[in-house]
Amino acid sequence: MATQLFVNLPVKDLDKSVEFFTALGFSFNPDYTDENATCMILNDNAFVMLLVEKFFQTFTNKPVADARASTEVLMAISTDSRDEVDDMVRKALEAGGSPSNEPQDLGFMYSQSFQDLDGHQWEVLWMDESSVPE
Q1: How far is CA 131 from the centre of its chain?
Q2: Helix (H/G/I), strand (E/B), else coil: 122
Q3: Angle, helix 82-94 to helix 14-23, in steps of 10 degrees
Q4: Average pLDDT per run of 10 along the chain, which is 134 residues long?
Q5: Exposure of 26 by Cβ count < 10 A (0-12 exposed, 13-18 middle, 19+ buried)?
Q6: What's the whole-model pTM score?
Q7: CB 78 within 8 A of CB 127
Q8: Hey, how many other C-beta atoms are within 10 angstroms of the C-beta on 59?
Q9: CA 54-30-8 angle, 5° bins
């Protein structure tokens, strides 16, 4: 069983990406940060490695997807409340992100989404697990 998750994402401008995600309230591990990469902390066991595209390319023999033209992954992160969903998406849009899908309200689950500066799609959700339909 895996004990940690590291999602690796290519970015065009590392400094702008750090500024964007800092505006959303995320922090970074300086031990894994240099001119090519940084480690964004989601929680104690989940991280997003933001890698400059040229450096990202060294990890794969496949072409790097243009997230503005196609979807290579959907990242979903949870929050503790509906208000936190709205707050994070608002911050993302104010920091230069763009809207993605319409909000979804299923009663027991509420979500919104945004695209970061490189076009990666982020889903932000809250779920009341005690109210999930059977």
Answers
A1: 26
A2: strand
A3: 140
A4: 91 98 98 97 97 96 92 92 96 97 94 96 92 76
A5: middle
A6: 0.90
A7: yes
A8: 12
A9: 40
